[in-house]
Write a structure and sequence with these properties.
Helix content is about 40%, strand content about 15%. The protein is α/β, with parallel strands linked by helices. Strands 1-9-8-5-4-2-3 form a 7-stranded mixed β-sheet, sandwiched between helices. A 3-stranded antiparallel β-sheet has the order 12-13-14. Strands 6-7 form a two-stranded antiparallel sheet. Strand 2 (about 90-95), helix 5 (about 100-105) and strand 3 (about 110-115) form a beta-alpha-beta unit. Helix 2 (about 25-40) packs antiparallel against helix 9 (about 250-260). The structure holds pyridoxal-5'-phosphate (PLP). One of its GO terms (molecular function) is transaminase activity.
């Protein structure tokens, strides 16, 4: 038995994610939805796909939703819909999941990395502005860990330079941002020309497999994206564009309809866990809790603390020995990933992103984490900070 912290007693083992527990109360509804798809047997583009798209569009404030195969395809389709000239540059954060950059590279466009902010981890608007060249075609902003990047500054820069803004909203579905004082907040993913999301099972709204979607308020672009995601066809066997085969399975859409109804409650539950951690971990020596941008809500896809570079791996090991799992999202900045060496970046070019890779640690956060488990996690983190 690992030694337990002095301040509390552990209960059930803490997990990073507990999808079985999250599904348990709605399992009969999920099973009924699956049974219905089995009976109707319209497995591709069945009725649940359109119904889910409409319901998600309503939830996100009357936006067009185009379902697709996964969040990486969504980014690729978003870029395809911009019809950028060959050789165009697309600005991406130096600190994000690799898919953001991969979608650019796979289309033969050039990813241009830009620095992020040390507090919110979002794209640094000044760095974006400095990275713009005559070849820049688009900016992809990532709302990392569940909080919006500075959408006010980034939309202003995009507009000034006539660049498209794509929002990679795989981690922040349901988050909102207030673009200007006195204005009604808008949903993340619905501000730029195109927004994208992922329904990978561990995301805040996850399927039972892969899935993704695009958001746009422009009807013409929505139609084009629907065609691009379905072999570029305008009607069956008539292909006006070179597209992809990237559709959301009817089965996944049917399950996502059930899960979408739970999303507001699940988000509130994540926020309660975050509030507990905030209260318990504020002011601990050498540890920083996630910074909140007052203009944004935070849906806490991750609760990510930062500690000194020489302490991070020790903290992770300390937690592991005491039964608390944690993850480093992400250990390598995008500009230093081996596959992207051809871009010619060197260590030291994006010091904030590089430092974050050595100092971040994401703690367990999910809607079914119990009070006792939260208390155990925060007590264990506190013990580390006091003894180390
Ligand atoms: C998960 C994720 C993606 C990719 O989504 P998939 O559905 O796994 O392809 C893209 N960007 C970010 C920021 C993500 O977290």
């Amino acid at each position: 038995m690992p030694p337990s912290p002095t301040s509390t007693v552990s209960t059930a083992p803490v997990q990073l994610l507990d999808l079985a527990a999250q599904h348990a109360p709605i399992q009969p509804e999920i099973e009924a939805a699956i049974q219905q798809v089995l009976r109707e047997a319209a497995f591709i583009q069945g009725p649940a796909v359109g119904e889910f798209a409409r319901e998600l569009g309503d939830y996100l404030g009357q936006t067009q939703v185009i379902p697709c195969g996964n969040g990486t395809d969504a980014l690729q389709l978003a870029l395809m819909s911009l019809r950028l000239p060959a050789g165009s540059e697309v600005i991406v954060p130096a600190f994000t999941y690799v898919a953001t950059m991969e979608a650019v590279a796979v289309l033969g466009l050039r990813p241009v990395c830009a620095e992020v902010l040390p507090d919110t981890f979002g794209l640094d608007p000044a760095a974006v502005e400095a990275a713009i060249t005559p070849r820049t075609g688009a900016i992809i902003v990532v709302h990392l860990f569940g909080q919006c990047a500075d959408l006010a500054a980034l939309t202003r820069i995009a507009r000034q330079h006539r660049l498209a803004l794509i929002e990679d909203n795989a981690q922040a579905i349901g988050a909102t941002f207030q673009l200007a004082a006195g204005e009604t907040p808008v949903f993340a993913g619905t501000v730029g020309e195109v927004g994208t999301t992922s329904f990978f099972p561990s995301k805040n709204l996850g399927a039972l497999g892969d899935g993704g979607a695009l958001f746009t308020r422009d009807e013409a672009r929505a139609t084009y994206l629907r065609q691009l995601a379905n072999h570029g066809q305008t009607r069956k066997y008539y292909h006006e564009h070179i597209g992809l085969n990237s559709r959301l399975d009817t089965l996944q859409a049917a399950v996502l309809r059930v899960k979408l109804r739970q999303l507001p409650a699940w988000t509130a539950a994540r926020q309660r866990v975050a509030a507990h951690y905030d209260a318990a971990l504020t002011g601990l020596p050498g540890l920083y809790i996630p910074t909140r941008d007052p203009r944004s809500t935070h849906v806490f896809h991750q609760y990510t603390v930062t500690v000194a570079v020489e302490k991070r791996d020790q903290l992770q090991a300390f937690l592991r020995e005491r039964g608390v799992p944690s993850v480093v999202y992400y250990p390598v900045p995008t500009h230093l990933q081996p596959a992207y060496q051809y871009l010619g970046y060197q260590p030291g070019q994006f010091p904030v992103a590089e430092t974050l890779c050595g100092t971040v640690l994401s703690l367990p956060i999910h809607p079914t984490l119990t009070e006792a488990q939260m208390a155990y996690v925060s007590a264990t983190v506190s013990d580390f900070c006091r003894v180390s």
